[in-house]
Amino acid sequence: MPTNFQGVEFPKPPNLAITPRMIAFAAVGVLAVGTVITSIYTVPAESIAVVLRFGEAVAEVESGLRFKLPFGIDRIQKVPVKRQLKQEFGFSTPGATNPAQTSRESIRETAMVTGDLNAALVEWIIQYRIVKPTEYLFNVRDPAETLRNVSESVMREVVGDRTVDEVITIGRQEIEAEALVKMQEVVNRYAMGLMIDQVQLKNVNPPRAVQSSFDEVNKAQQEREKLINMANGEYNKAVPRARGKANRLVLEAEGYKTKRINEAQGDTDRFNALLAEYIKAPEITRRRLYLESMAEVLPQLESKIIIDESAKGILPLLQLDSGKGQ
């Protein structure tokens, strides 16, 4: 037995010979393990995998445990087709995981000129989905950055067709709807495989250098609207009142007119009736009219003196002073 330098004896190791058969088994085993490892992959529930065979897209695979040709023959690119993606312009949300969600040049991309040659800082957001993974991966070199450029170009066009008042106040919904349609048209023309779901304007402000002046203008406009509304309120109160009074006067005049017409018609009918009777018996009718007139007049007199036509010198007999006193 061999000894070491201290004289301690150790047993001699067995002589293990490596045969070609063992090398072949080892190679087969390594090949089998490599084949299994490189041919099995998993697609997440929110994604679709595009299978590339020698660089060419040959299939789109749904989520789950899948198999492919090993050793780099098939490569996989997973695309999150069921995830709602978004891009922000002019601001950024902390903790964003999408690299293309925000831009470093937020001031440049939000500075725009409106149709009335005013400057405005427009912040907006778009939400989109990947609907055709193969087109998204291969038709455009950088689809996320291209989408940002398309969105900025379309927004500048839409804002440039409107006044600054429309952009800030009353025209926001129209801008969002028009921008959505135009962005989708450009995306379809480029065959980017994207669907634009929403375009939403956030803050729209004038440049900081003119912010104070713009606020003063807004304040003056609000005051003007307030005075106009007050004037309209007074108008709405005064005009109906005047119209009601005018209608009342018109109705009263119509009633008076009808009354006078009816009275005149009645007097005419009465006169015609008397005339017919007078023609039939003039003397009787004349006496009757005389008696009716006296019946109306005499009760209104305080004292009545009836004398004979042949009587003379009656003044001493009358108590004129007492009558005058009465």
From TrEMBL:
Keywords, sorted A to Z: Hydrolase, Membrane, Protease, Transmembrane, Transmembrane helix
Location in or out of the cell: Membrane
GO biological process annotation, one example: proteolysis
Membrane topology: Single-pass membrane protein
GO molecular function terms listed in the Swiss-Prot or TrEMBL record: peptidase activity
Cellular component, GO annotation: membrane
UniProt cross-references to SUPFAM superfamilies, sorted A to Z: Band 7/SPFH domain (SSF117892)
Annotated transmembrane regions: 22-43
A Pfam match: Band_7
Principal subcellular localisation of the protein: membrane
Coiled-coil spans in chain: none
Domain (Band): residue spans on this chain: 38-218
Family label: Belongs to the band 7/mec-2 family. HflK subfamily.
Subunit text: HflC and HflK may interact to form a multimeric complex.
Function per UniProt: HflC and HflK could encode or regulate a protease.
Protein name, as recorded: Protein HflK
Record organism: Pontiella desulfatans
Biological classification of the source: Bacteria, Pseudomonadati, Kiritimatiellota, Kiritimatiellia, Kiritimatiellales
Gene it is expressed from: hflK
